Records
---
Amino acid sequence: MATIRMKPVKTPDLFLECFCISPDVFAGKTPTEISRLEVREGKARNELGDFFDIAGSSGKTAEETDIFIDGDCSRVKYIGSKMTAGSVTVNGNADMYVGGWMKGGSIHVRGNVDSFCGLAMEGGEIQIDGNAQNYVGCAYRGDWRGMRGGTIRINGSAGNDIGTFMLGGTIIIEKDAFIHISTHAEGGTVVIKGDVQSRVGGQMVKGDIYVFGTIEHMLPGFKEIGTVDKNILGQSMKFRHFIGDLGERHPKKKGREIYGNLYLRAS
Amino acid sequence: MPKLITQVGCPYCGASCDDLEVLVSDDGKKILETRNACVIGSEIFHHATNPNRLKKPRLRQPDGSFKEIEYEEAIDYTAKALLNAKKPLIYGFGSTNCEGISAVGRVAEKAGAVLDNCASICHGPSFLAIFDNGYPSCTLGEVKNRADVIVFWGCNPMHAHPRHTSRYSIFPRGFFTSRGQMHRTVICVDPRETDTAKLADMHLMVKQGHDYDLFNAFRTVLRGHKIPEEVAGIERAKILEVAEKMRNGRFVMIFFGMGCTHTDGRNHNVDIAISLTRDLNDHTKASIMAMRGHYNIAGPGQVWSWQFGFPYCVDLSKGTHAHMNPGETSSIDLAMRDEIDCFVNVGTDAGAHFPIDAVKHLKKHPFITVDPNICMASEISDLHIPVRIVGVEEPGVVYRMDNVPIQFKKVIDGPESVPSDEELFDRIYVRICELTQTEPIWVHGKAPVPASTSRVK
Ligand code: SF4
């Protein structure tokens, strides 16, 4: 494995759009070539090297390329977006679209991320040590095909719209979430280890939601059907099992309707 | 002899009434009387002939005062400010015609700006819901002639759209609704007892911020499932009664407003309202409509969707394609995150409507207002450019809240030398072309050059 090391040297006036910070783009390029890649600040065209010191070496393919950014990227968008392999590590915060449309490989942000982390993700792993803002693992506007695969783990808390239109994959929020979990979901798993305020599973067709803490307001479209023992993320626990959203359409399998599952930890 | 002009459009609220009559003086300069308009509509016509109307742009001086300048100078200033910025934002269009809106589109594309309209702080969430879930809507004419169950959810037309109820939704006698109000059941869902709620046959006083839960309850009931004893502060019996009313209606019409789009969940409140409308169509005919605020605020959505493929929050800074993602490219988010370095406020009052922190960020950079009137935004601007008032001094196409285009008239002449929004932005466009030494593809008043010939040199 070869590593490209980047160190932020200049903070942009506005926000930097770096579609290029991805092992797929860096693979096979020298640090000099990488520093000449285009980044955008609104309509201003700049080079990656204007904002980062770039050293180390890249692998021949994305798979063999690791990227390590040593510093704060609070004003850098699209880190690791569309990547298919390799890894990106940010030793600090990152802005919007971390791992957006990602297909493979791994991303590790040691700070917080802004909104749209893992937007329309298809595969790979994202690990955020801090908090995430809104739209974790959500679909792009108007797309009914949201996150399809991969894993997103937020060690802190997250805002609203987690896994909207989700079809597959796993999202784990270690702390609390605000509102709208798995809205319109047709698959996938969301685990909230803390509390959620409300609107869990609204318009949900299929999929699983686990809440370890409390749900302040339960939607009327969810019905409790019993308790179950489940082993989730290596922990065995007793859950109250709800099905829903009963207000939404549901497909049938062998003549029986399939519902979304909401597992709320039994106290 | 004073002249009576009929079938005049009202450039105020989203009801876009087009049955006004305006009496103007002999010389065509003064408005003597307006008929059929409501109080707020009438006011906009009389406001136009206010003797204190501005007739020249005003530029902020180093000592903080305003100095009147010529239009040429204001056009040059705006063109340069847009070109010098890395990410300018052009926002507004609550009160202008589609001609002006499309002229601004050309300027924004040329200047690589972000283009956004008042929907961003109003019915923008409705757009998001429509992208996600479709829009089973109709025209207000269909409402008038067919709807017998009217639901006002989180909107208060008695104040915001005064003639909406008399022209379209409650009182008018239509083809299948010949007994007017007697023919209709009016249901109001609002946490407050508004004047619309007082007028309604049923008022559901939903707990603030729990609209989504209540929509969910209606959907669950309509699918034959049980719901809890109480949802969103409303008793089960009441929910069942209203659900029954809707199911038995011949044509259910749901109107929704800011109570849905600007409480927690925003687009999801509208999204589930759309799902409910779809569900109701299993039982009867149902339709849904956003209570758009201004007379042509549906206009930018129409024009830009045609020009760029997106109705609002259109980021044209890439130069190669339009990018839209509200939450990122929406005015308030851009301003709050300090992602804008030049702001042009057109036909609205961002000074009054934006959060104070957003305005503080925008104020660090050139801040320009294009508006006929003095407003909070104009008073904090670096440059204020007055224009003619659409619907009073300038004709044009407007889109009513049901997306029906209407040709509005002009009733009096505007102040001499004051341009329309369209003229002003076309001149800014030409100035940008001069400054960037590029060929304009559009010159005001001339037929556009076909793309194929403009490329051949
Ligand atoms: S209801 Fe609206 S459009 Fe009609 S006259 Fe009043 S302000 Fe004008």
---
Amino acid sequence: MAEERHMMWTEKYRPRTLDEIRDQSEIVSRLKKFVEERSMPHCLFAGPPGTGKTTAALCLAHDLFGERFMDLFMELNASDERGIDVIRTTVKEFARAAAISEAPFKILVLDEADNMTGDAQQALRRTMERYTDTCRFILCCNYSSKIIEPIQSRCAIFRFSPLGEGDVKDFLGWIAKNEGVDITDGGLGAIARISEGDLRRAINLLQAASSLKGEIDEDSIHRLAGRIEPRYAKEILELAIKGNFSESRKRLRSLLLEKGLSPLDIIRQIHGEIFQIELQERDKLLLAEMLGEADFRISQGGDPEVQMSAFLAKLASLSSRPRG
Amino acid sequence: MRPAEQWEEKYRPSSISEIVGNKEAIGRLVEWVRKWGKDPKAKRGALIYGPPGSGKTVAVEALARDLGLDLIEVNASDDRSKGKLERMIGGAASGMSILGKGKILFLDEVDGMSPSMDSGAMDYIDELLSKANYPVILAANNAWDPKLGRIRQKCELIEFKRIGVREAVPFLKRVAEEEGIRADPEALKLLAERNRGDLRAMLKDLQTLSHPGGALTKEDVQGASRRDRTDLIFNVLKNVFSAKSCQSAKIAINEAEVDHEMLFEWIYENAPLWLSDPGDLANGMEALAKADLLFNIAKREQNWGLISYAIDLMTAGVAMAKERSRAGWVPMRFPERIALMAKTRSERAIRQRVLGRIARRCHLSRASASASVLPYVLEIARNDSKAFKGLAEWFGFDGEEIEFLKSLCGSPARRGSKEA
Ligand SMILES: Nc1ncnc2c1ncn2[C@@H]1O[C@H](COP(=O)(O)OP(=O)(O)O)[C@@H](O)[C@H]1O
Ligand SMILES: Nc1ncnc2c1ncn2[C@@H]1O[C@H](COP(=O)(O)OP(=O)(O)O)[C@@H](O)[C@H]1O
Ligand SMILES: [Mg+2]
Ligand SMILES: [Mg+2]
């Protein structure tokens, strides 16, 4: 029996070639054509998390370059290096140096590009134009609307959709069998449902479930998911609705500083809840607008706690108004 | 508990004879008022100037009382646009005093006026100096402020000096006796020296550092520097939060000895205490959020011009938000965020390292790693220590990072290896 080596299953089961990618068949066939013709335009991969954007970029480069992959491919996470400096230096260096010998071009992936500042995107746009001959860019993002228009118009756009629940369940079943996970059909179905087409989430949930003792069923999956992804947002919102702004802000502060949660994650969670709050419909809309504003301001460099506090204070004031 | 009366009010002199220091200057002022309107060559106005707490305001108030004159007073906490000034003193300035008493028109803290915001006010004062039927007294910290250029020409200049230690100590001793405090003379001397001629600040210190019936030693005063600063901030905050006009909210922060970022933190922390009405608070927080964004953009783009708008928003924006909130004194507290950030700094650094390793392994940003990988790793660590060990190796976590992750799992976590 092969030696058991621990690693994240998302990486263990990440497709290596375009052929192994599930669903997204239309996208895959377009990408395969690039490989056949050994040519491609700049690309924009847009879609929700865990649908295979990064994977597709890696597979495309792999299928195009084979052994020389390492020299011809570079992956940068624009969310971590979102400043203009990185574009000016790293990206330019890579893009400028001509591809070696017979290779037609190099590929640079800018992952999670929707968090790039406007300035950085402008700089990127010029780099893309200037070095088109030597380098093709693949930008991955959740929302294509966060990419400036001039970049969009220079790219072939690929829209990734969430994987179907049935496909997710099949894939999970296959992994579970391979890894010897003792999970019921109901358990697999529960994971598929909870993960809403996000395969990363699905696989991670399965791996976490595998660390539990005994048979895993639908119930244990729900308890597991509750532990892993607690609904922090709900608690914060409830405090604000009760009019206790200070406590609500304190809780938010602790999530950010002590728990180290990402602000955008908290905002996303809150966004998922606001239409359920007991408020007049137009107030809910107002809240959505304010939350969007907070999100935007944070992306422009605003302090997450301060920006979200403005939202919470607004919520507290709307909830305190006599209804009628 | 009701806050005790402030000693600066309690011991406010009610007649000139009670005023400490600046005898000569006050004598000149009295003389000028007495002679006003009789000598055609004399200046029409008086500008008294000198550092804060040297007794300018109390001198004018005591003088009016001693001479039996009505005092029409306008200071920085009033909105001093031209229109407002006209309404407040216009009538008084031109009205005759056939029946009533004489008057003094007193414009305090004129150097705090902003040329742009209190627009037209300088012109109005200029005009007032030529036309008023009564003596006009102006007070300022700095007589040479360019704004006062034209006005200065028309005024008799009278300088108020810092109150000397030798004048201040006997006064402080009297107050201490009155309050039943056994004060070491050395302590009072140090207290006077440290406040560099500001009698108001000395009284404040004496009040905060001593207890009724207690003693005040030199050590008490020496150990107080931290509290002083806090006290100063409290005062600045109070002035910002209770300002009635944008301009007075804005200039209230001039006295704070901390930078804008720190001041922002104080205001941001304490705004919910002052803005007790939820609607007011929402408006105040929105102003602060906008200020925050401007501060951050200013820093990022080195566009320092934006800072002044940020300051407007964090001062005037918050002050003007107060419409329906309860009035009155509220306690203030140190910005908790600052303390928490300091406390969690090293942990956050380790956390970033951990996320960096996950990000590289899983083709993600650190933020995505935090949201969509780390919680699963922690769950595995809670359930199956052997699997966690294997993963830690794969990710390349070092000992410190592993300890950190275990600490995140919570206490009853380690249920041992699944296979055990
Ligand atoms: N279409 C897909 N086919 C097969 N595996 C997928 C697919 N989409 C996502 N995955 C799995 O989910 C994980 C995350 O996929 P990734 O491509 O990184 O998502 P994202 O769209 O967020 O970039 C990968 O490890 C991969 O195993
Ligand atoms: N010369 C003084 N004699 C007595 N009390 C003074 C004197 N100067 C200041 N004070 C005290 O300090 C407080 C503030 O003084 P104030 O006249 O407002 O100072 P300024 O006008 O120079 O800023 C007064 O309430 C008073 O209690
Ligand atoms: Mg990705
Ligand atoms: Mg004064």
